[in-house]
Amino acid sequence: MLAIGAACVSLSAAEEQTGKTPPKPVIEHVDLVHFSHTDYGYSDHPEVCREMQRRFLDVAIDAVLATVDKPAAEKFCWTAETTVAVDDWWRGATPERRQDFLKAVRSGQLEISALPLNQTATLSRAQWHTMLHWLPEYLWQAVEPKAALQNDVNGFPRAGAVALLDRGLRYFFIGINPEFGGPPLKTPAALWWRMPDGRKLFVWLGYPYWEGYLFFAEKNWRHGYPAATDTRYRPPRPGEIFSPDEAAVRKAHGRLLERIRALEAGGYHYHRLLLSVMNEWRIDNDPPLPPLAEFVGQWNRFGLKPTLRLTTVSAAMKRMEDEVGREAPVYEGEWTDWWANGVASGPQEVSASRLAKRLARAAAAPVWGPVDGNVDRALEKIYRDLCLFDEHTWGYTSSVSLPYDLETLGQHNEKSRYAYRPVGLAKLLLAQRVRTRLAGLDEGLYVANPAQWPWSGWVTVPVDSLGGHYKSVEDARSGIRSPLEYRSGWALPPGAKELTPENLAAMFPETAVSPRANVWVEHLEGGGVRRLLLREKGAKESGPTGSPTVATDQNGWPAGATWPEMAKPLFLPGLGDILVVGLCGAAPRQAGQAIWAAADNAERAKMRAEKLEEIWAKPREKAWLANSAHTVVYTQLLHHPRFRLAVRQLEIWKRQPRARLTVRFDRLSSVRPEAIFVAFTLPCRGVLPRLSNGGLPFVPFQDQFPGTCRDYFVIDGWAHYQTPDGHWLWVSRDAPLLALGEHNTLAKRTERPRNADRMFAMVFNNLWYTNFVADSHGVMEFQFDLACEKNLSGDAAAEQLAESLLAEPQVVINPKEKENPLFLERLYRP
What we know:
Elements: H1 2-18, E1 29-34, H2 46-66, E2 78-80, H3 83-92, H4 95-106, E3 110-112, H5 125-131, H6 137-143, E4 147-152, H7 158-166, E5 171-176, E6 189-194, E7 200-206, H8 246-265, E8 272-277, H9 291-301, E9 307-311, H10 313-324, E10 330-332, H11 347-363, H12 373-389, H13 406-438, E11 444-448, E12 455-462, E13 472-475, E14 481-483, E15 485-486, E16 516-524, E17 529-535, E18 549-552, E19 558-562, E20 577-583, H14 588-596, H15 601-611, E21 612-616, E22 618-619, E23 624-627, E24 631-639, E25 643-653, E26 658-667, E27 674-681, E28 690-693, E29 696-698, E30 713-714, E31 718-723, E32 726-732, E33 737-740, E34 758-765, E35 778-789, H16 794-806, E36 810-814, H17 821-828
Helix pairs in contact: 1-8, 2-3, 2-4, 5-12, 11-12, 11-13, 12-13, 13-17, 14-15
């Protein structure tokens, strides 16, 4: 903004010195799209924001109806940026007030956009469906959204674009915040964004949402960033901004001419310009500005050029498409998001949200039977919460500068609720579905696989749930028996050696806390249910038909594992290494901003080398081994100055090329800006993986919108490497962010890495200076699965295999006695 302002001043001065009449502007029309940028929790507690947004809609309705009979140039127009506010308002409105709303919509002066919120790019396929069905269908049909708005956020997944197209939308209006990111192309610009299926969205890549005001004024009227409840501040009153006074209008006209001349000097050649305009109380979460209509009316009465028009988003987009649609360039690819790294500032909450998504998906699995209306309603409630969790606001205005302030903690508490509440609700729904399907069956221990791909692994049950002391289980169909493997039960520690470093309570050995019994289940078919009979007689475990060759480093940690049928190992040395990248200096976040703002890559690389501190975790001791007939488990304690404790564990399957890595560390409380990565290297040199976001696959660095983020990628949870030697699949349970080649912290990478087989899962990142969590600390756990398949037919198979690797088969233990029919009907059924 400063650069543009400086250019305007110098141009105006040059005109005065030469005395030449400036050329006729190319821009003949300026359309103002007026709305409130919704940022739930940034300026106020999220619930306060929602209450304010409801009230804003009331103001907009009244302002529209007050001008509905005025000449077109004097009509007040308003676009509801998000449908959350509309839905909240509609649910509480009286029948008479609803009619006012519909009258305002029918006037064409009030428009409802299609999206419920400005999202972080971490939504699943099911969430995108929820996003585009937020309003009741009858209300959607009544308001007929024609355009979608997204502001602040630096990217938008193709999954979201496809969801818009599927709902009949064709216009997408986006205003990107340049802080620690920025637009992918020179703005403003009109363009077409083509999807893999050939359909296209018409996109207006505009200025940041607050910039429109600065085309008419030299600086923002806003003072500070007050909360709505701070009575020492107030919204601007009529006449203080966009004054209809002739002198004020003509001064604003002069400012506009300066700005558009600078814009045209930079190559802008359209005859129309679209600008978004906010109020100037806080800019974010701000009310409508009814006097804006009078200002526009006066402008046009004075005959000023370019003409000014207050309009709605789709009307503006339609005019722009009519004028430049044929010449607008076409772009393709995944629109990756620079701001996505902020997701990792709340890793525990992200882990909970991803657990809730897996549970909800499992609850809808066909193995339990058809999904009825009750299940649909329960899922909608879960996914709505998850969408609100994935809204782009992760922290209060002062979340980093005042990380322990009550306002900051209150915002984070509400944000976290949208992750943890869906976990509980999804667990309940899944349990209801499982019991409805299995609790009425005959005696036995039932294991059900909700995934579509076959599953092999350990099934664990609490000992006290068995109702007796059993030593084995017998497959009711095949008659094959398998032993139950017991772990120790409750016991007082015999000595200090039993109190391991992870025992925060220092009361009992971790291995003795919860008595469990394990049984190995081999190749449980997708959507299958297996009945096992509990037996008091023991059974011998059959040995594996094949076993991998495991290479270890000098500390006993696996450096590779190769199965007889494989030409290459499942992984290479460095699996599960932990890297902490921190910013150094007295004001580290300012150093981060300076690195980001570096003029060229060489300068940025030099600054990164000076200001970024990279510390790898080191082994505290040699790894120890636990062997069974089916898997072998390696465990190793690690040391890092940023952790109270760190441990990694690798479980390797003996019968199939598969391994599971679990990394757990206790991050010490600190607002120190740092990013934490877990590293992996696969034997897939020279191959770019296929990733997926929102259910739509893409190849990073190849299938990307130009100019979008290449430092890290938001993924559904898997990376698929296809090589002549087979298919390697890497799956993340908890961490949705992946960097390739290097950790890429503040790198602004543009080129493809030579070693894309080197992966860095970003599990923590608090480098941002606002809007995200400053000090997530305590125990954090992340789990990753690796698998290799000789043949894997396409992305759908990769997704199904990834789902299976993360699946948790459901277990029901039925006694001889039959279940109470009242329980089956009234208690268990969703």
